[in-house]
Amino acid sequence: MLDIIVQEETCRNIVYAIYYPRDQLKWTFILTFTFLYIFGFVIFELSDFRSVVEDECDTLLGCFLVLFNQGLRMGGGIGDYLGGGDPPSITEEHATWMRRTFFDLFFFLVVTVILLNVVFGIIIDTFGDLRDQKKDKEENKVTMCFICGLEQRDLKAGGVNWQKHIKEQHHMWNYIYYLMHIRATPLDERNGVETYVARLAFGTADEAGGDIDWLPLDQCLALREDSGDADEEDVLGDLRAAVAALAAQTRDLQEQVAEISERQAEAAAAR
Ligand SMILES: [Zn+2]
Fold first, then answer.
1. Would you tell me how many other CB atoms lie within 10 Å of the CB of residue 168?
2. How far is the CA of 92 from the centre of ligand 1 (A)?
3. Distance 187 CA to ligand 1 centre (A)
4. CA 26, CA 43: separation in Å to the nearest integer?
5. Radius of gyration of the chain (CA)
6. d(CA 120, CA 246)
7. What tens digit of pLDDT does each residue of 214-237 get?
């Protein structure tokens, strides 16, 4: 039966909803115990309160346990338990009636309404968070590439075919096969890339391994090729401009050379 809890994510999340906020729950319970102790102390000190509970409240610990057991379980707080036997009469025992009214009401508000609901709230909140995380995970499985982490819509916007991308370009099983291949290859037969990947993925005597830096994180060759074309066009444009400038300079030089030779010819004729 416990195996089902481990296997099924929803069951696991219910357990985690209590386990993850354990620190918050611990402090809420400590606060609740503190208040129960204070309420227990009040009952222990006031004889007209204590007489209702009789033998159970002979010691301070007994009073605390009565509150812990009955006060937390009763829907209306400890007032339900204390009022069960013989509630004080408003006319005959007016002072006791007043004190009991405030005591029961205060216990109900602090312990039953606030503290217990804080505990429930923490657990429900955590469960909601875990459910959202599970939903995000399910969504990522469908819309995000397992290898590069790029979103389906970004790849599509870059002109990359999504199915081709996850089945060919970044086919996740190919990466697993590659790791298996490296692991099966003896150390001295690995090439440079394989040695590098093995060092990152499996670690060495000094390094822990499990590093994913060797994966094409946030990048994809198909996307880079597209942007590569754009770069090439830029370079070509620059080259064309440079060649045109060079041709203009050559023309100027030719004109200057022609002018100089003309002047030399004129000077020679004048002599
Ligand atoms: Zn990818």
1. 11
2. 82
3. 29
4. 26
5. 41
6. 80
7. 899 988 888 876 655 556 677 788
- pTM: predicted TM-score of the whole model, two decimal places: 0.61
State the virtual CA torsion across 49, 55, 60, 65 in degrees, nearest 10: -100
Residue 179, Cβ density class (10 Å: 0-12 exposed, 13-18 middle, ≥19 buried): middle
Spatial distance between the Cα atoms of 23 and 208, rounded to a whole number of angstroms: 30
Distance from Cα 206 to the centre of ligand 1, integer Å: 31
Query: 123: which 2 tokens?
Result: 């657990």
pLDDT, one tens digit per residue, over 23-60 is 999 999 999 999 989 988 888 888 777 766 767 778 88
CA of 144 to the centre of ligand 1 (A): 8
What is the Å distance from ligand 1's center to 152 Cα? 9
| 200 CA distance to ligand 1 middle (Å) | 20
Structural domain spans, the chain: 2-143
Q: How close is the Cα of 143 to the center of ligand 1, in Å?
A: 11
From the CA of 79, how far away is ligand 1's center (Å)? 63
Q: Check if the beta carbon of residue 60 is closer than 8 Å to that of residue 40.
A: yes
Q: What is the residue whose two structure tokens read 């204590």? A: 50
Q: Please tell me the predicted confidence (pLDDT) of residue 227.
A: 59
